[in-house]
Specification:
By secondary structure, the chain is an all-beta fold. The chain has no helices and 11 strands.
Length: 133
């Protein structure tokens, strides 16, 4: 399914594909999150992009911990994660081709995150896979 919408004067289209990844991150340290747009694309800061962090409870359900607003997307830092914690970072980011009044596209992300003090990785990168067709 493809959805076409007008966002802040730019046309955006969406597919139902969601990128899912499993990630191991260190616990006890702040975790910077960086968004990397594909070459020729930029993050559309006027669009309703969002990212939310959920923590898995002892009952096995994910509970919302934090939601990044669209104006926070260029400078995101997760608070230190609990050791042996289980998290989910989900969201949808809107990208536009570089240039004025360009067509936009969105990508949805779903990161399953396990935290452990023995893991060295203390950074999370979100990589866009858009093409310049």
């Amino acid at each position: 399914m493809v959805i076409l919408m007008l966002v802040e004067g730019s046309w955006c289209w969406a597919s139902s594909e969601e990128k899912q990844s499993e990630v191991k991150l260190t616990s006890g340290k702040p975790i910077p999150i960086q968004i990397h747009a594909a070459p020729g694309w930029k993050l559309n800061l006027k669009a309703p992009s969002w990212l939310s962090l959920y923590q898995k409870s002892s009952l096995g359900k994910f509970q919302l911990m934090y939601q990044f607003r669209k104006d926070q997307l260029q400078n995101m830092i997760l608070s230190p994660l609990q050791d042996q914690g289980h998290y989910q970072l989900r969201g949808t980011l809107y990208y536009c081709k570089k240039g004025e009044r360009s067509v936009c596209q969105l990508e949805s992300y779903d990161f399953i995150i396990d935290s452990d003090s023995s893991v060295q990785r203390a950074r999370l990168s979100i990589e866009s896979e858009l093409k310049n067709d």
